Amino acid sequence: MPIEVCSISGFSKTEGNSVAIKIDEEVILLDMGLSMSDYIAYTEDREDVSTKTYKELLKANAVPDYSFIEEWKEKVVAIVPSHGHLDHVGAVPFAASLFPTAPIISTPYTIEVLKSITYDEKIQIPNRFVAINLNSSYKVSDAITLEFVNITHSIPQTAIVVVHTPYGKIMYANDFKLDDRPVLGKKPNYERLKELGTEGIKLLIMNCLYAHEHKKCPSESVAKQMLKDVLLGVNSKGKAIIVTTFSSHLARLKSIIEMGQRLNRKIVFLGRSLDKYVRAAERIDVVQFSKDIEIFRHRDKVAKILGKIQREREKYLIVCTGHQGEPKAMLSRIARGQLEFTLGNGDIVVFSCQVIPVEVNKQNREKLEIILREKNTRIFRDVHVSGHAHREDHRDLLEMIHPEHIMPIHAEPAKGRMIAELAEQLHIGTTHVMKDGKRLVL
């Protein structure tokens, strides 16, 4: 059995991505993600996350179940996150120590995000970090080389990871989109992807979250225009403006900053996760937002700046956490009147995001929007484009790569079957629709 694959997590539901690839007597772990809805539900009333153990989080279904590869644990030679989103790296602080000698290998920003998370939560792990630039390779062993191919997504330095083995190449294209007009970073490395397709791909593990959407995912530049239409196209004189989006979405934050400058407003970022992702990016010069904005994460400083904004509301643009309606996040606290700032008639709240379709998020956002409507604020929803490939992007990648085998990931099996139907229509490869904990021998 030269290559064996275990679909550890992210196959029976959307979150908690993780795959194990066994090549002879060595194992590569691709992604180590949290199931965010389960994690939030379990930790929302617990202040100190650092005391939570892997076993506790496993009981809460918040982390991948590595008992599926119990007999492989001593063989793991690398943990390889594809990018810095928590449903791909968030379990690293809790689970990486199960494989203490395996280095964590990823792109520089992803590594910097992981360092920030472990530092912020006061969690120590024994694994060493290895940062590899995009469009570069890293030799793990005599038999295995990792290649990180630049691809676009909603966080910087996302990679399509290619595992080169003596028995063929495995391509891990989890979160991705094919964006030819990115707001931050370079467009996908189509040239190398086409070369890899010509060289031959044994297995393509591909995101299928939006396999039901019969269209191409719009460019991030479209979201920038949507923000422009809202922020510059409505009368905001004398009104507060609050924008909330994913803290890791630096391209979106870049566009928001630009619009704030065009409005001649001072821009402030409020919240721990915004501070975490922006500071990590600034340390390795991905962005330098601090020259144009101020960031506040500590409660006393947040309270002080909000008191100032309350008196001069039309001079500021607030960017804050809480786009999913999280009860402890900044926007929810502002809406509930728990901070020194009052939203009122005609104030503008922009959700530059979509609701992640799990029940806890839908409920939290509805509760938040009810409060905002009661205050007669102007709510702008879905000022957003996705960071995930849609069905026509899946088609383009399949035709570019022509893999022998296809394994859909990042959604329930119904979405995987949609990829199988598409591949069958294209007469490309054999599709394996998996569930968590199953194995495939190639």
Tell me what you see in this structure:
The chain folds into two domains: 3-216 and 387-441, 4-Layer Sandwich (Metallo-beta-lactamase, Chain A), CATH 3.60.15.10; 220-380, 3-Layer(aba) Sandwich (Rossmann fold), CATH 3.40.50. The longest helix has 16 residues, at 359-374. The strands form four sheets. Strands 7-8-9-10-11-18-19 form a seven-stranded mixed beta sheet. With 442 residues, it is of the alpha/beta class. The chain is globular, with a radius of gyration of 22 Å. Helix 9 (272-283) links the parallel strand 13 and strand 14 (293-296). The chain is built from 14 helices and 20 strands.
Rg from Cα: 22 Å
β-sheet strand percentage: 15-25%
Terminal Cα span: 7 Å
Number of strands: 20
**Biggest sheet layout:** 7 strands, mixed
Please identify which CATH superfamily of the largest domain we are dealing with: Ribonuclease Z/Hydroxyacylglutathione hydrolase-like
Summed up, the helix count is 14
CATH hierarchy, class of the largest domain: Alpha Beta
Largest sheet: spatial strand order: 7-8-9-10-11-18-19
- Shape annotation: globular
The tally of domains stands at 2
Structural class call reads alpha/beta
CATH fold name of the largest domain: Metallo-beta-lactamase, Chain A
| Mean pLDDT value | 95
Unreliable segments of 5+ consecutive residues = none
The percent range for helix content is 25-40%
* Architecture (CATH level 2) name of the largest domain: 4-Layer Sandwich
